[in-house]
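Design a sequence for this backbone.
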């Protein structure tokens, strides 16, 4: 019980504490899976924010372009100023598209990928805690947890074990 307080992962702390307290396995599974689902939902909110911003950025760029062109049309009596005005108007579109595709959407994708990785890790942790609580042997616990690893991760783990 004292060692669990030093664990870095709150889900691990909760799972071990529930196991130590003698919580029934079905109740433990329900509590831990609810924690994992709530975490995934929180992560979706951050990813959705950047996805939405990435969707609106090109539109805002086009609005900036239209405003720049309207401004340029207001100065038709200065033909020499039209070229630079048109160029600066179209820069707004470039900025909007670049912001969306080079910053916001990749950031949303990265958040989604990291969230997916954390969810899989958390599910693996839940299965490991429940396996230990049910009295499974070390090899069985290991086999249950290895099921979550990709073939590359499994091969990498075998190399490290040697």
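Sequence:
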């Amino acid at each position: 019980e004292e060692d669990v307080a030093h664990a870095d992962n709150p889900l691990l702390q909760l799972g071990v504490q529930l196991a130590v307290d003698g919580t029934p396995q079905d109740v433990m599974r329900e509590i831990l899976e609810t924690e994992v689902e709530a975490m995934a939902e929180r992560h979706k909110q951050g990813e959705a924010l950047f996805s939405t911003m990435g969707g609106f950025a090109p539109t805002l760029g086009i609005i900036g372009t239209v405003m720049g062109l309207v401004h340029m049309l207001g100065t038709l009596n200065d033909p020499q100023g039209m070229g630079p005005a048109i160029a600066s108007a179209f820069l707004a579109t470039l900025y909007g598209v670049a912001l969306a595709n080079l910053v916001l959407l990749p950031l949303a994708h990265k958040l989604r990928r990291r969230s997916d990785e954390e969810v899989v890790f958390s599910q693996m942790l839940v299965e490991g805690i429940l396996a230990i609580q049910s009295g499974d042997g070390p090899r069985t616990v290991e086999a249950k947890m290895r099921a979550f690893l990709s073939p590359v991760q499994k091969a990498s783990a075998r190399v490290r074990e040697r």
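The chain has a mean pLDDT of 91.
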